[in-house]
C-alpha cells in the first residue's frame, strides 16, 4: 500500500463488522460509508456542493461512460476527475466491466439479483440485443451512444482509469449473472484472475510513468456468483496476488449477488480476504442490504438506486418507500420524512414535491435526489456510530421493524 493511500481500522465488533478510515490524496473516507454514484461525473440534477452538504464523503463515476463521453484524455487534461467535476474530495471509478458486459448480455443488475429468473448461458447467447463479446484477451463492445465498436482489455481499462484519475479504481473483471451456468462461472473466474494480474502489471507501469499524478489505489474484484467454492477461491487468489511488486490496495465484491444469500456470500469472501484492506460492495444500496453488508465486513458501498428512483418520484422514509407523485400526497404539507434533516425535508413539503413531479418541473428531481441520497448516506453513518457505541444490532432491529412495513398511502 502506498503512503498516499491507507486504511486504518479503528474499531472492530463481534463478527466481521468494523469502523475505519480510508485515506486518499483527495481526503479521508470514514467507513462504513455509502458512496453516491455520479455515473457521468455528475449526480444527476444535484450540485456537488449539495452532495457535500448532505454528507457524501466520496463519489463514484463510471469509466465506461466517461471513456465514451467526454473521453478520458479530456478529464486528464482537466487535472483528473475531482478537478473536472469540482468535487474536492475522494472519487472512485469502476472498471467498465459491469457496464460493458451488462450491455452485452442485455440484462440489468436488478435481474442479476433475482434468482427466480434463472436461465442458462444459451439464452444469453441468443439475446438479440447483445452488444458485447468476451474473449480471453478482453471485451469487444458496441457503444450504446452511436453504435461504434470499441475494445476494453485489462490494460485499456487501467489506462482509461488512470487518465480519469480517481483515487480508487477497480481491476477489469468479467461480471457474470445468476443466469450463467456453473461451467461458465468457472471460466469467468479464471479469466478474471488472469485479467487481475494484467491489471496489476499495467497499474504498476502507469503509476511509475505518471508519478507526478496523485496516487491511485487499485481494488481487485471478487466474482464467483452464488458458489461458495468459487467465491472463496477467487478471494484467496486475488487476496494473495502480487505482480510487478505490488498487490491490490483493497477489494470489490461484485457480480451476481443473490439477494437471499447476500450476507452469506459476503462473509465467505471477507473471511478469506486480507482483513486489513478495505472491502467495497459494488452496486448495492437498498437499506436492508446495507445492514447486511456492514455486519459482514463491508467498508464502502456504491449504488445508483437512490438517485434513479428519486427521479421517478420514489422517496425513502423510515417506514419504507413511497411515490410522492401519487394523489394522497397532494395536500400533505409535511416533509417527506419527519425525522430527516436534509435540505429538502427542512424546506419543502410532500405537497410541493407532488406538484413539481406532476408539473414535470426539473426541481422535482433535484429535491427528491437530495432527500434520498441523504437518507442512505445518513443511514450508513448511523450504522458507523452504532458500531462504535455497541448498538448496531439494536439499530438494525429497530430500523427493519419499521422499514419492513409495506408503505401505505397515509405515510
Ligand atoms: Zn429528507
Any descriptors?
411 residues, alpha/beta, TIM Barrel, eight-stranded parallel sheet, binds zinc ion
CATH class of the largest domain: Alpha Beta
pLDDT under 50 segments (min length 5)? 105-120, 122-128, 405-411
Q: What is the 3D form? A: globular
Bound molecules: zinc ion
Q: Helix/strand-derived class?
A: alpha/beta
Largest sheet: 8 strands, parallel
Q: What is the helix fraction of residues, given as a range? A: 40-55%
The strands making up the biggest β-sheet line up spatially as: 4-16-15-14-11-10-6-5
Question: What is the distance, rounded to the nearest whole angstrom, between the alpha carbons of the first and last residues?
Answer: 48 Å
Quote the CATH topology of the largest domain.
Answer: TIM Barrel
What is the annotated CATH architecture of the largest domain?
Answer: Alpha-Beta Barrel
How would you portray this structure in words?
- This protein has two domains: 298 residues, Queuine tRNA-ribosyltransferase-like (TIM Barrel, Alpha-Beta Barrel), CATH 3.20.20; 90 residues, no CATH class.
- Helices cover 42% and strands 18% of the residues.
- The chain is built from 17 helices and 18 strands.
- The strands form five sheets. An eight-stranded parallel sheet has the order 4-16-15-14-11-10-6-5. A three-stranded antiparallel sheet has the order 1-2-3. Strands 7-8-9 form a three-stranded antiparallel sheet.
- The N and C termini lie far apart (48 Å).
- The C terminus is likely disordered.
- Bound molecules: zinc ion.
- The site of zinc ion has 8 residues, from helix 14 and helix 16.
Amino acid at each position: 500500500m502506498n503512503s498516499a493511500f491507507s486504511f486504518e481500522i479503528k474499531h472492530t465488533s463481534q463478527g466481521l463488522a468494523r469502523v475505519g478510515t480510508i485515506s486518499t490524496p483527495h481526503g479521508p473516507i470514514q467507513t462504513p460509508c455509502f458512496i453516491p454514484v455520479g455515473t457521468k461525473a455528475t449526480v444527476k440534477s444535484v450540485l456537488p456542493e449539495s452532495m457535500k452538504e448532505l454528507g457524501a464523503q466520496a463519489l463514484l463515476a463510471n469509466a465506461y461512460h466517461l471513456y465514451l463521453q467526454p473521453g478520458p484524455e479530456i478529464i486528464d487534461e482537466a487535472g483528473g476527475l475531482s478537478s473536472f467535476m469540482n468535487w474536492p474530495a475522494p472519487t472512485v471509478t469502476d472498471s467498465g466491466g459491469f457496464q460493458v458486459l451488462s450491455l452485452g448480455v442485455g440484462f440489468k443488475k436488478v435481474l442479476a439479483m433475482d434468482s427466480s429468473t434463472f436461465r442458462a448461458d444459451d439464452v444469453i447467447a441468443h439475446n438479440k440485443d447483445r452488444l458485447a463479446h468476451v474473449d480471453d484477451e478482453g471485451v469487444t463492445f458496441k457503444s450504446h451512444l452511436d453504435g461504434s465498436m470499441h475494445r476494453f482489455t485489462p490494460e485499456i481499462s487501467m489506462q482509461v482509469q488512470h487518465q480519469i484519475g480517481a483515487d480508487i479504481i477497480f481491476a477489469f473483471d468479467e461480471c457474470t449473472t445468476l443466469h450463467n451456468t456453473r461451467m461458465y462461472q468457472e471460466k469467468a473466474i479464471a479469466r478474471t484472475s488472469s485479467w487481475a494480474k494484467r491489471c496489476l502489471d499495467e497499474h504498476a507501469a502507469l503509476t511509475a510513468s505518471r508519478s507526478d499524478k496523485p496516487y491511485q489505489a487499485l481494488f481487485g474484484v471478487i466474482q464467483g456468483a452464488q458458489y461458495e467454492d468459487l467465491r472463496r477461491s477467487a478471494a484467496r487468489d486475488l487476496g494473495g496476488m502480487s505482480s510487478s511488486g505490488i498487490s491490490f490496495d483493497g477489494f470489490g465484491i461484485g457480480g451476481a449477488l443473490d439477494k437471499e444469500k447476500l450476507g452469506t456470500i459476503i462473509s465467505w469472501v471477507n473471511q478469506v480476504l486480507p482483513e486489513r484492506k478495505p472491502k467495497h460492495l459494488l452496486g448495492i444500496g437498498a437499506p436492508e442490504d446495507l445492514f447486511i453488508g456492514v455486519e459482514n465486513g463491508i467498508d464502502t458501498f456504491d449504488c445508483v438506486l437512490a438517485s434513479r428512483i428519486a427521479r421517478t418520484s420514489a422517496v425513502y422514509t423510515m417506514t419504507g418507500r413511497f411515490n410522492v407523485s401519487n394523489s394522497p400526497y397532494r395536500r400533505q404539507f409535511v416533509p417527506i420524512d419527519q425525522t430527516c434533516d436534509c435540505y429538502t425535508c427542512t424546506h419543502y413539503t410532500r405537497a410541493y414535491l407532488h406538484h413539481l413531479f406532476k408539473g414535470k418541473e426539473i426541481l422535482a428531481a433535484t429535491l427528491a435526489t437530495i432527500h434520498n441520497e441523504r437518507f442512505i448516506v445518513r443511514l450508513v453513518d448511523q450504522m458507523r456510530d452504532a458500531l462504535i457505541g455497541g448498538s448496531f444490532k439494536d439499530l438494525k432491529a429497530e430500523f427493519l421493524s419499521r422499514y419492513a412495513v409495506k408503505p401505505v398511502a397515509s405515510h
